[in-house]
Amino acid sequence: MVPESYYLALSAVLFSIGVVGVIIRRNPLVIFMSIELMLNAANLAFVAFGHRLGSNDGQAVVFFVMAVAAAEVAVGLAIIVAIFRLRRRLSVDDLSLMRW
Fold first, then answer.
1. How many domains, in total, are found in the chain?
2. With helix as H, strand as E and coil as C, how does 52-97 read?
C-alpha cells in the first residue's frame, strides 16, 4: 500500500511544474496544458485526502473540477483559434489585443 504522503508529494511536484509552465512559457497552448496539469494535481490531492478521510467527497469534487476544466479548454481553444486566424501567430501578448 502506497502512503498518502507520496500522492501529496507527487501532487505538489505536478502543481509546481504547472506553475513554472504558466510563468515561463509564452505559447498559449503550453499555458493551457500547464493549467490542466495544475488542475490534475489538485484532483490528485482531493482524491488522496478523500481516501485518507474515508469519504467519497473528494471524488465528487474531482468530477466537478474536470467538468469546469473541459469547459475552460473548449472556450480557451476557441479563443486561440480566433486569434490565430486573425494574426497568423500565437503569442500570449496577442491576447491583450482582444480588449476594446
1. 1
2. HHCCCHHHHHHHHHHHHHHHHHHHHHHHHHHHHHHHCCCCHHHHHH
